Amino acid sequence: MLSGNEKHLNLRAFTNSQKHTLYEGQKGICNQCEESFNTDQMEADHITPWSEGGKTELENGQVLCRECNRRKSNH
Length: 75
Ligand SMILES: [Zn+2]
Hints:
The structure is a single chain. The protein has a two-stranded antiparallel ribbon with strand order 1-2. The protein has helices at 6-10, 16-25, 66-74, and strands spanning 42-46, 61-65. The N and C termini lie far apart (31 Å). The longest helix has 10 residues, at 16-25. The model has no long low-confidence stretch (mean pLDDT 89). It is globular, with a radius of gyration of 12 Å. By secondary structure, it is of the alpha+beta class. The protein has a single domain (7-74), classed as DNA Binding (I), subunit A (Orthogonal Bundle). Bound molecules: zinc ion. Residues 30, 32-33, 64-65, 67-68 line the site of zinc ion. Zinc ion binds at residues 30, 32-33, 64-65, 67-68.
């Protein structure tokens, strides 16, 4: 599912391949609730938020399950 907007979005969103690398590195375990999930149940997240100057790179990335990621954004 490639779109013409992808390059632009990549500036602040992790790519699928970055997400997979993070997922593999965490062995499928959510960093918040420490349960294991399938890759499609997880989302790549900035450890230091983009809005606070966090970069979109692997060193600043983690995968969280959707629920934890949503909870974090509402926080
Ligand atoms: Zn979780």
